[in-house]
Amino acid sequence: MNADPRPAGGRLLLALIIALVAVGPLSTDLYLPSLPAIGRDLGADVAGTQLTLSMYMVAFALAQLVYGPLSDRFGRRPVVIGGIAIYVAATVACAFAATIDQLVAARALQAAGACAGVVLGRAIVRDVYGRDGAARMLALVGSVMAFAPAIGPVLGGIVEVHFGWRWNFALLLAFSAALLALLAWKLVETNRQRDAAALDPARMLRNYATLLRDRRYLGYALCVSFGYGGLFAFISGSSFVLIDDLGLAPDVYSWFFLMCVVGYFLGAQTAAHLTMRLGVDRMLMLGAAVNVAGGTGMLAAALSGIVTPDVAGAAYLVFPMAVFVLGMGIGMPNGQGGALGPYPHMAGSASALMGFIQMSCAALVGIAFGRLHDGTPTVLACLVLFCALAVTASLAFLVRPFARR
To answer: How many domains is the chain built from?
Structure first.
């Protein structure tokens, strides 16, 4: 029987989960318009500057493998509070970084704190709402959370133009410090099935091995991971393509990013309204089809020559990306719910492993963009389409053949 959400805090709990999950996208999206300026200020090239994103994802991925078992053993509350405290300290270091190496290191530590919010936010949802309820609630969280990446680049672009890139980290510091205080004051424990052996190395390996042997779990996790990988290709590459290559101002760029956020919001709303009616697997099929449509349109635009260095030309590239993100908004919460549903006794570990795969995929995509970018939008479009096709393959070969009839 599912836990009653009322003792866990009701609407306040949902608000805290949204804030926790928002820490991750805010940490990447707020400073996106500043990436070219950071490179110039700290004397780094595109590949070096992009490492502030890719190494963030690597650290995010690795830390999740620890947070999941920790929360299964000691509970969600103390672990998430500790993670956000690490984030606060790391954000101070980001704001005062004097070299690109210092910023990369500080961003890695920042990720080690931020991932507590994402991993444990999902685990708390699973604790309280169960398998099918978790998919719906994650969709609701995603639709509301869309405002974080919507506000992030717009606000970050304004801050970059008027104050400089360091003030974006000052804003993250203010947000995370306020969240830390609220968590310490109001968050209650939701893990009612603590595992005393969760931190035993052999037990951790067995748990992760159990998850990896489950083809449906792996399929759901890969759908989530490649969907996010396509988005991260845009996150890591769009500022260089739109600002450096196409000549958009940082504040204008942020409005194009907003177009993709609207796509995600619409996709998450669609998932929230249709998941209980159509089921997780059908929603994933719909999301994958939309992913492929968006990726195909993006590559066609990049190869056709209609992406020109002006606002209209940029729109031809960004609109199909918004279509891809629409599909991601449909598929991601359903993939997350499908992966976590069968494992209430180790929801933290299941969430952590899924997050590890997701962020590893994102880091590889980001590194690929940094190494392959040639001053045109073609590499970015190819990476997005590749991820769309990988979502479809994961669904077709791992999830669908083992679906419950």
So the answer is: 1
